[in-house]
Structures are given as structure tokens and as C-alpha cells.
Write a structure and sequence with these properties.
11 helices; globular; alpha/beta
């Protein structure tokens, strides 16, 4: 069947890269199977973890009535490549990314779909819960009530929007028209991809429900305290990517955008200073940053 077949209207494609998550994959898959929203397809990306994770996931899905399929990577290509091929192969009207060591509230997809249909928005953001050493820590960016915004840049500047790709519902046709894939070979791949979508969105929805459980564990890259050269380079790429994409856009006149951008520069500089990089590396990175950011400085003072 083709994507525009009527049977795919309202379908949500849940894309799950799977790599060395044997301890968590069953909880993840069970949370998807138990969703109150019925019209979903589950796309597993086997990224060659070789720990039996994919087999555990497939065993559970074979016993369910859910539509699902597995895409086998030829070798370990990383989460960016996994998400890219998942988007290409998805049939659904909407896209939803789920990390295989996390899990969903049973009403997650239903809440997101209700919001995107009600508000005619391109993206839906919701609150999530951090799982830290067995403790549940609510991360409440969106307060008081559900609403939509025709000014996504303002919501980003207010720090309402996450830079993580999970727990967000996207309209697939809109996202694919942007034609920006996840950049492979970097660790902070979520941030530039989300940023590219936010600056192009005309309307976003925000819901107060806690719909996603994000597991922070020692093996997770984002939880690592070792801010090494690779991490610094990835953050550096994000800052320069933002500069390149927005340099000639009118959003530079938006005070919330300028505030958000300034905070990101400060974050990058603090990470660089606190990193375990060699002093020579930090010096080169700082010099290169300010050389390439001369035009950015003019943006702030004019």
C-alpha cells in the first residue's frame, strides 16, 4: 500500500533504535503494546547490538496484535542512521521516536494525537519523568494547562521545549518536506534536528501530562560526566549549525530567540572550560569559535 492510502490516516509510526538494551527492552516494548491509541505501527531498527535485545523485542511483538516490522542494519551505524532509515520506511501520518531503554505512559500516543488534531499543529511537546537511580523525578517544563502556540521561538526561549527528540509527535509529511536528516557521527544529534524543526514550525502544541519515562543510567552518553573532546566538538557543531541556519532570518529580532541562543553559547563555553580536554585543544576551539562567530556578535549588538 502507498503512504496516502486511507488506512494509514491517523497512524503513528513509533521508531525504536535497538542496541545493547537487553535489561530494558521488554519494559519498553510492553509500554508500546499497551497504548490506549490503537492505530500505531512499531518500527524496530536492529543496530547490531548482538546481546539478544532485538530477539526479546520481537518475541513480545509476535504475541501482540500490533503492526510491527524490523529493519536490520548491515552493521552498527548509530542512532542517527537508525532514525533516518526509520523515517524513510515509516507508513504513518505521524512520527514518534522512542529510545529502547525508556518507556511510555499507556495514554502517551493518544494524548499526543488528540493535541495535534485539535490544534492543527506540526509538533506536540509534553512533560516527562526522569528515572534516576530508581527514583522518579518529574521534569515539568509545561505548567498549568494544555495550550498551543503560534510562536514556537518564544516557547523555546522560555525553555519550555526540550532539545531531545523523544516524547514529541511530528507530522510526517511536514517533517519530510524539511529534508534535514539526523547528522551521523555526532552524539548530540537531537539538538540540531529539533532546532531545525522548531524554527520552521508555524504552530506547536504543549500538554502538561507526563507521557514519557526517560531512564538516566551510567551507560547513557548524556549522563556521562566525562565531557571529552568528542562531546565538546558535538556541542560546537550545534552552535555553528544554529548560526548557519538562522543568520539571514528575521528571527534574530526575536528577543526570546536571542536569549535562548545566548544561553546556548554560555553552555558551550562552560562545557569547554569544565571538560577534560587538553589545554591546547580548548585554546584552539575557543579561538576557532570566536573567529567563526564574528558575524554572530554583530547580530547581538545591532
Amino acid at each position: 500500500m502507498k503512504f496516502n492510502d486511507k488506512s494509514y490516516e491517523g497512524m503513528v509510526s513509533i521508531i525504536i533504535p535497538v542496541y545493547k538494551v537487553r535489561d530494558y527492552i521488554q519494559e519498553c516494548i510492553r509500554s508500546v503494546i499497551s497504548q490506549t491509541y490503537q492505530n500505531i505501527e512499531i518500527i524496530l531498527i536492529d543496530d547490531c547490538g548482538e546481546d539478544g535485545s532485538i530477539e526479546l523485542a520481537e518475541t513480545l511483538l509476535k504475541k501482540s496484535s500490533r503492526r510491527w516490522f524490523t529493519i536490520k542494519q548491515p552493521f552498527n551505524k548509530g542512532v542517527s542512521a537508525a532514525r533516518n532509515i526509520g523515517m524513510e520506511q515509516a507508513f504513518g501520518e505521524y512520527l514518534f521516536f522512542l529510545d529502547a531503554d525508556d518507556y511510555l505512559a499507556e495514554f502517551c500516543i493518544e494524548k499526543h494525537v488528540n493535541a495535534i488534531c485539535r490544534d492543527s499543529s506540526e509538533m506536540v511537546f509534553a512533560n516527562h519523568v526522569d528515572l534516576i537511580n530508581g527514583r522518579f523525578v518529574p521534569s515539568k517544563r509545561i505548567n498549568n494547562k494544555d495550550y498551543y502556540s503560534d510562536d514556537p521561538i518564544m516557547e523555546q526561549g522560555r525553555w519550555r521545549l526540550t532539545s531531545m527528540v523523544w516524547n514529541i509527535l511530528f507530522r510526517k509529511d511536514w517533517s519530510m518536506r524539511i529534508e534535514i536528516p539526523f547528522k551521523e557521527g555526532i552524539r548530540t544529534e537531537d539538538a540540531p534536528w529539533i532546532f531545525s524543526h522548531i524554527i520552521r514550525a508555524k504552530r506547536i502544541s504543549l500538554i502538561t501530562d507526563f507521557t514519557y519515562y526517560y531512564r538516566r543510567w551510567n551507560g547513557a552518553y548524556t549522563c556521562s560526566l566525562n565531557k571529552n573532546e568528542s562531546y565538546v566538538s558535538d556541542r560546537y557543531y550545534h552552535i555553528l549549525n544554529c548560526t548557519k541556519e538562522t543568520l539571514n532570518l528575521p528571527i534574530w529580532k526575536h528577543r526570546y530567540f536571542r536569549a535562548w541562543y545566548a544561553r546556548n553559547i554560555i553552555l558551550f563555553l562552560s562545557v569547554l572550560v569544565r571538560s577534560q580536554c587538553q589545554p591546547e585543544y580548548r585554546y584552539r576551539k575557543l579561538r576557532c569559535f570566536f573567529q567563526k562567530s564574528e558575524c554572530l556578535i554583530w547580530k547581538f549588538v545591532n
